Automatic annotation (TrEMBL):
Family: Belongs to the peptidase S8 family.
GO molecular function: serine-type endopeptidase activity
Source organism per UniProt: Bursaphelenchus okinawaensis
GO biological processes: proteolysis
UniProt domain Peptidase S8/S53: residue ranges: 8-102
Highest taxon of source: Eukaryota
InterPro entries per UniProt: Peptidase_S8/S53_dom (IPR000209), Peptidase_S8/S53_dom_sf (IPR036852)
Stated name of the protein: Peptidase S8/S53 domain-containing protein
Length: 103
C-alpha cells in the first residue's frame, strides 16, 4: 500500500487503522512506512489508536513510527452539548478512549 501511494503521486495519506505496538519504530510495516515517507516524500497521518486513556497507549503504525503524524480523537466544546446533551459548559478534550503518548 505504501509504495502504491508513491507510484500514483499521492502527497498525503490518512490511515485510520492500527493495532497495539510492543516496540516503537520497529517491524516490517514501519520500515515500509519510513521508506515511503523519507524516500518518496509522502506525508503519512494516522490515528493514535483507541486504547486510551492511559499514557503510552499509542498504536502502530501511527504512533509507533517517527515518520508518521499521529492524531488523537478530540471532542470540541460544541460537540459535548450536541452529541451528549450536556447542560453545563465543558472545555474541549480528548475522547476518553483516544490513545495517548508518549510512545
Amino acid at each position: 500500500m505504501f509504495k502504491k501511494c508513491a507510484e500514483v503521486g499521492v502527497e498525503v495519506t490518512i490511515y485510520s487503522n492500527g493495532e497495539a505496538a510492543r516496540f516503537p519504530n520497529t517491524g516490517r510495516i514501519i520500515e515500509l512506512l519510513n521508506d515511503t515517507v523519507y524516500m518518496d516524500g509522502v506525508t503519512f497521518v494516522s490515528s493514535a489508536g483507541n486504547n486510551g486513556p492511559a499514557l503510552s497507549t499509542g498504536g502502530a503504525p501511527g504512533a509507533a513510527s517517527l515518520a508518521a503524524i499521529s492524531v488523537g480523537a478530540y471532542i470540541p466544546p460544541e460537540g459535548v452539548d450536541l452529541l451528549y446533551g450536556a447542560r453545563t459548559k465543558h472545555d474541549g478534550n480528548l475522547y476518553t478512549w483516544s490513545s495517548r503518548g508518549p510512545v
